[in-house]
Specification:
The protein is an alpha/beta fold. About 40% of the residues lie in helices and about 20% in strands. The protein starts with 20 loop residues before the first strand and ends in an 8-residue tail after the last helix.
């Protein structure tokens, strides 16, 4: 057990607690009971049998970090080794997804153990406990939307073509660099080939784009690694088509999802990260998407574009907004149009289709 877990000799009041506290209830009954009482007060959450997390820690981390915490907690709670596969393995390998998965994908030890199971409930239903959660939300500056976060389900999958190679040991890091433990996961080429074959393009495109961007040399050999893993010709066709669609120039999940949504809706897929120049051949801007057929730039406006991490030193978000407006004006002066959209647009396919039609994006031939 590494330093990110605790053997339960330290009480919940300690400021030295790691993010996850792992208790073996049969060995530390008193300590486990102490943590159960903390759950009843609303001060802690039970992420898995014998694995706890302070409520304030849970609420101050982003949804993707919570998913990783759930994965590590599940692995800590099991006596047998847990091997993560599919989309979960890709996230553990550091590849992004457009949405937080609803399941932890786990390799089943036998056909009889395959299936979907629920995780423990994070919180109690009593009024004092609910008030405690609201207090933690307020402390982290979050609004209550009427629902509390839930644990991902655990999906155990069995395959006759189980890999013969050993799984990778991964040190799990949250977005702020905090290490929360080590887990076992399918190798990157196993996990990605699985996702490309099993998942729709709207799911697989984001990690596939990131794999091409972040692991260029590995990506050049990916199909050679993946082909022996695919059991059918139809599966291989799906893999090759999805991998061919992936574009390492995409720089964010929103951009990846936008391209996939345009493709799924039957529109011409835009070029990614296009540099634009004026009549004097002076560089003006690099846009997220470009439709040459209609001289149209497409910009995905995620929150990060105006967040502190993407602003110049000393800038406010208003400064970033003004600079972006000036950039758009410069693009329009070249005679190009500009279409902008946000997450809620691209996640609603009929809405996104109306937006593309409004801006004159052509449909694909055939």
């Amino acid at each position: 057990m590494d330093s990110t877990t605790l053997d339960c000799t330290t009480p919940p009041a300690s400021r030295q607690d790691p993010l996850l506290i792992s208790c073996r209830e049969q060995d530390h009954r008193r300590s486990a009971s102490t943590w159960r009482r903390a759950v009843e007060r609303g001060d802690a959450l039970r992420l898995a049998p014998g694995v706890f997390c302070r409520t304030e820690v849970w609420f101050r981390h982003a949804p993707w970090d919570r998913y990783l915490l759930s994965a590590v907690a599940h692995a800590l709670s099991r006596q047998d080794p847990v091997i993560f596969i599919g989309i979960t393995a890709l996230l553990l390998h550091g590849l992004p997804t457009a949405d937080v998965p609803a399941h932890l994908e786990v390799r089943a030890g036998s056909p009889g153990r395959a299936g979907v199971t629920h995780q423990p409930k994070l919180y109690r239903d009593g009024v004092p406990e609910v008030q405690a959660y609201l207090k933690h939300l307020q402390a982290t500056g979050q609004d209550f939307d009427g629902s509390f976060p839930v644990q991902p389900l655990v999906r155990r999958r069995w395959s006759r073509r189980q890999p013969t190679e050993d799984p990778d040991t991964i040190t799990v890091q949250l977005s702020d660099g905090t290490e929360v433990g080590t887990v076992l996961a399918a190798s990157l080429h196993h996990a990605l080939s699985d996702v490309l074959v099993r998942e729709p393009l709207l799911v697989s495109v984001t990690p596939a784009d990131a794999a091409k961007r972040l692991h260029r040399e590995w990506a050049a050999a990916f199909t050679d690694l993946a082909e022996p893993l695919i059991a059918s010709k139809s599966g291989l066709r799906r893999l090759l088509a999805a991998w061919s669609f992936a574009d390492g120039r995409a720089e964010s999940p929103g951009e990846s999802l936008s391209r996939a949504a345009a493709h799924e809706l039957g529109f011409v897929v835009p070029e990614s990260q296009k540099n634009l120049y004026d009549g004097a051949n002076q560089w003006i801007a690099r846009v997220d998407h470009w439709w040459e057929e209609v001289n149209l730039a497409g910009e995905f406006d995620g929150r990060s574009k105006y967040s502190s991490g993407f602003r110049k030193p000393g800038d406010s978000w208003q400064d970033a907004l003004v600079r972006e407006k000036e950039r758009e004006d410069a693009i329009r002066r070249t005679g190009a149009g500009v279409a902008r959209w946000v997450w809620k647009d691209v996640r609603d396919l009929p809405r996104f289709a109306r937006l593309l039609i409004h801006h004159g994006v052509p449909r694909r031939a055939g």
